[in-house]
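A reminder from the course coordinator: this example appears on the midterm review sheet, so study it carefully.

Given structure:
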């Protein structure tokens, strides 16, 4: 079982020293990914803004390979242009940890969820407008963190074992269907803007929300 870390920032440093350019770095990673045999325990990908990307073709190819190698932990830190997650990511059924930054979360038709996911950290993510009433099943999820995400009201998940929810700077945080997960005992919501910027917040009845969280021990909302 392997741990693979792909750091484009490292490629930039090598390029500045004349070792090889970022494209050469990509070719090396392509060979490693293509010839790798066996499951991948952890895959970490960092894409800095300095990299000039015409498309995410290579990244998409790596995602496809990951989906065939039983990856358990997947971390993508994207400081470049917004990346639409490739559909193959949603085929990684062995995932236990998912952490992604600056992506579009748009599952393919027929996606039912990640059956083994235990912890999920999503930052600067936009959830597809056409998710509609699709329910994403995350039966093992215990910890969920959302930071600066858009259209979270469309992130309709069923997480019956969710214990900890942290939401930072998400406009429609209080509209999350998962707020009704009965096992939740820690809920932290921080809007990080003035009440003037969130006029709808005043219309939410926290008493109703709390009544649907019978096991809650800590409920914090910071407007």
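Designed residues:
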């Amino acid at each position: 079982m392997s741990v693979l870390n792909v750091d484009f920032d490292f490629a930039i440093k090598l390029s500045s020293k004349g070792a090889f350019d970022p494209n050469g770095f990509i070719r090396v990673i392509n060979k490693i990914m293509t010839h790798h045999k066996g499951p991948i325990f952890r895959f970490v990908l960092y894409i800095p803004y300095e990299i000039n990307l015409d498309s995410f073709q290579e990244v998409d190819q790596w995602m496809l390979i990951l989906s065939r190698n039983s990856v358990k932990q997947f971390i993508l830190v994207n400081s470049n242009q917004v990346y639409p997650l490739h559909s193959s990511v949603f085929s990684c059924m062995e995932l236990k940890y998912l952490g992604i930054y600056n992506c579009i979360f748009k599952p393919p038709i027929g996606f039912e969820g990640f059956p083994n996911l235990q912890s999920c950290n999503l930052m600067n993510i936009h959830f597809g407008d056409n998710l509609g009433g699709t329910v994403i099943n995350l039966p093992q999820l215990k910890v969920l963190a959302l930071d600066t995400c858009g259209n979270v009201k469309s992130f309709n998940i069923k997480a019956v074992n969710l214990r900890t929810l942290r939401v930072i700077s998400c406009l429609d945080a209080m509209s999350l269907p998962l707020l009704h997960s009965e096992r939740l005992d820690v809920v932290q919501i921080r809007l990080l803007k003035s009440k003037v910027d969130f006029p709808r917040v005043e219309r939410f009845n926290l008493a109703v929300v709390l009544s649907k969280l019978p096991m809650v021990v800590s409920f914090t909302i910071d407007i």
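The first strand starts at residue 2 and ends at 7. The radius of gyration is 19 Å.
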